[in-house]
Amino acid sequence: MRPYIREKKNFTFDDVPENTSFEAGYLTTVNSGWRSIRPVINSGKCVGCEQCYLYCPDGVISIDNGKAVIDYDFCKGCGICAKICKIGAIEMEAERK
Amino acid sequence: MANKTAESISRDEFFYGHKACAGCGGSLAVRAALKVLGPNVVSVLPAGCMSAVGFNFPQLCFSNNSIISTFAGTASMLTGVEAGLRARGYKDFTAVGFAGDGGTADIGIQALSGAIDRNDNIIYICYDNEAYMNTGIQKSGLTPFGAKTTTTPAGKNIHGNIRPKKNMFEIAAAHDIPYAATASIGNLPDFIKKVQKASQIQGTKYIHVIAPCPTGWGVAPDETVAIAKEVVESGLWYLAEYENGNFKLNYKPKEFSSVEAYLKKQGRFKHLADEDIKLIEASRDKKWEYINKNFEL
Ligand SMILES: Cc1ncc(C[n+]2csc(CCOP(=O)(O)OP(=O)(O)O)c2C)c(N)n1
Ligand code: SF4
Ligand code: SF4
Ligand code: SF4
Ligand SMILES: [Mg+2]
């Protein structure tokens, strides 16, 4: 399970918690706009070794049916996954604007 | 294709959607540790990058219970969290702290020392990016010799930081702590094993994980993991544990990789002269002489 995007309420001053607690894992904004390059997985090559899943600082890679898949809403395009993949199954491509 | 490390930790993500720079090593350390400790962990984060990127109301990127402490107070808040939950009858939980190098070796050191002295049942993880990054790269007690920061500039006469890195691992060990370890985000199987081990031990546990910061070190975002491996291969960092009064070295490079190559890859060391690099090599060799003599393999 991963935290997911919630509806962004228009917080008024009254909605802001008076004590310092709020719901954990409450996401309202994505990080996809940070990317200039994006990792693309070649599923034909991917052997599901999970190295990219382990080393992604943002935790956006998961393994589905033995293949790596990326949550592009939160991938920042750092390129660590492409470097760690020994068999070259991840290619960094320019982000189309 | 089974990956033993991946199988040993939770598939859930507990640090997700955070606003750390692309390729941030600190965020990888926090993410990996939380995947070891699971949903019943309460994490405490002092002022520093990991709290700054994790808590941006209403965006809260920890899906476990998590709280910001004062800059100096990581360990004291951990003490309180652990005692409070225990007093309320909770049994199945872990109190873990994630503090930066500044928050640990400088301002937070007395709170940490006090917690170890009381042997409170907590895990304290120092993610070491070797400077005060969240406020724009100032020198901390864990900034290495020669590194350029905004408070240790590199000029003609002085070539960056003139002081060596504090030995926080052995400072923690010197309290006769039940468990202390060093780690690197370049070797996650080792780091994850150490967090697993710490979670099984009663009393205070201290883990010091080197966590490169592309922004402050002047390396590309995709270099973080590679540089965290290289710092170990070059002998400028080491993987070790302290347990039952003994130091143990977990990994010994057959031959050190080039210190110069490691340094010159990073913007913060670009200015170093050959003499500076010789000094860094000499202090590495002296450290390893000590390790070889005093740590078991
Ligand atoms: C008492 C106090 N002094 C100073 C600050 C300002 N401050 C916030 S974060 C930070 C730097 C933290 O450095 P470090 O602990 O190494 O963590 P990093 O940001 O590198 O992750 C400083 C100086 C503060 N929040 N509280
Ligand atoms: S590292 Fe490469 S081969 Fe391994 S799971 Fe990721 S994409 Fe697939
Ligand atoms: S580019 Fe970086 S953030 Fe995106 S999937 Fe790869 S490692 Fe994760
Ligand atoms: S400045 Fe460094 S430590 Fe802070 S979020 Fe960016 S990469 Fe991480
Ligand atoms: Mg720091």
Helix content, binned percent of chain A: 10-25%
Report the CATH topology name of chain A: Alpha-Beta Plaits
* Count of distinct strands of chain B: 10
Order of helices and strands of chain B: HHEHEEEHEHHEHEHEHHEEHH
SS summary, helix count of chain A: 2
Overall shape of chain B: it is globular
Question: How many strands, which pairing sense, and closed or not: the largest β-sheet of chain B?
Answer: 8 strands, mixed
- Quaternary organization: heterodimer
Q: In a nutshell, what does this entry contain?
A:
The complex is a heterodimer of chains A (97) and B (297). With 97 residues, chain A is of the alpha+beta class.
Note down, in words, how this protein is organized.
The complex is a heterodimer of chains A (97) and B (297). Chain A has helices at residues 51-55, 80-84, and strands at 37-41, 61-64, 67-70, 90-94. By secondary structure, chain A is of the alpha+beta class. Chain A has a single domain (4-94), classed as Alpha-Beta Plaits, CATH 3.30.70. In chain A, the strands form 2 sheets. Chain A has a two-stranded antiparallel ribbon with strand order 1-4. In chain A, strands 2-3 form a two-stranded antiparallel sheet. The longest helix of chain A is centred in the middle third of the chain and has 5 residues, at 51-55. Chain A is elongated, with a radius of gyration of 17 Å. The two termini of chain A are 30 Å apart. The model of chain A has no long low-confidence stretch (mean pLDDT 93). In chain B, helix 2 packs across helix 8 (188-200). In chain B, the strands form 2 sheets. Chain B has an 8-stranded mixed sheet, with helices on both faces. Chain B is α/β, with parallel strands linked by helices. The longest helix of chain B has 21 residues, at 274-294. In chain B, a hairpin with a 2-residue loop joins strand 9 (240-243) and strand 10 (246-249). The mean pLDDT of chain B is 98. Chain B has helices at residues 4-7, 25-37, 49-54, 74-87, 101-106, 109-118, 168-173, 188-200, 214-217, 224-233, 259-264, 274-294, and strands at 41-45, 55-56, 59-60, 65-68, 94-99, 123-128, 179-184, 205-210, 240-243, 246-249. Helices cover 38% and strands 15% of the residues of chain B. Classes of the chains: A alpha+beta (97), B alpha/beta (297). The interface between A and B is large, with 43 and 40 residues.
